[in-house]
């Protein structure tokens, strides 16, 4: 069924909607934005001269501080449900899924992580930068090793997370 566009009420509502949309657009375009700092590298007048953010990740850097890994401990409420969620981040290195010796020349530097659970003989590599989610570990103590690696898998930094999965109802392990 085709909508009736010739009905007087429909035409009046359509005209009103166009007028309102135009007024909103005009107001938003003419509204003054926040004042721009005199120095684009300052975040606040009190901190003039201090950078407000790191250099854009597309600009080659002549020198870079050493990268390191920051890892949060899992939340007890999640562990009680048998779910291990570990947030992490790398400082002075972008986590991306790019590998190989040619990627060593990328600036700012890039890398990924290796994850080993309970001293397993194997690990997995992750380049997503997203929190680690591990499920189905049996109740008891566990250890998660997170290693920050360069694109050739050379380890730069490492952190170990010790955690305990509490017994759950109905679980007889």
Task: Provide key terms for this protein.
single chain; 173 residues; alpha+beta; five-stranded mixed beta sheet; two-stranded antiparallel sheet; 2 helices; 9 strands; 29% strand
- Overall mean confidence score, pLDDT: 77
Task: Give me the number of helical elements.
Answer: 2
Rg, Cα atoms, Å: 26 Å
Q: Quick one: overall form?
A: elongated
Residue share in helices?
Answer: 10-25%
In short:
The chain has helices spanning 8-30, 76-80, and strands at 68-71, 83-86, 88-91, 94-95, 110-117, 124-126, 132-135, 140-149, 155-165.
Verbal overview:
- This protein is 16% helix and 29% strand.
- By secondary structure, it is of the alpha+beta class.
- Strands 4, 5, 6, 8 and 9 form a five-stranded mixed sheet that branches. The chain has a two-stranded antiparallel sheet with strand order 1-3.
- A hairpin with a 6-residue loop joins strand 5 (110-117) and strand 6.
- Residues 16-46 have low confidence and may be disordered.
Give the helix/strand layout.
Blueprint: H1 8-30, E1 68-71, H2 76-80, E2 83-86, E3 88-91, E4 94-95, E5 110-117, E6 124-126, E7 132-135, E8 140-149, E9 155-165
Parallel strand pairs: 4-5
Antiparallel strand pairs: 1-3, 2-7, 5-6, 5-8, 8-9
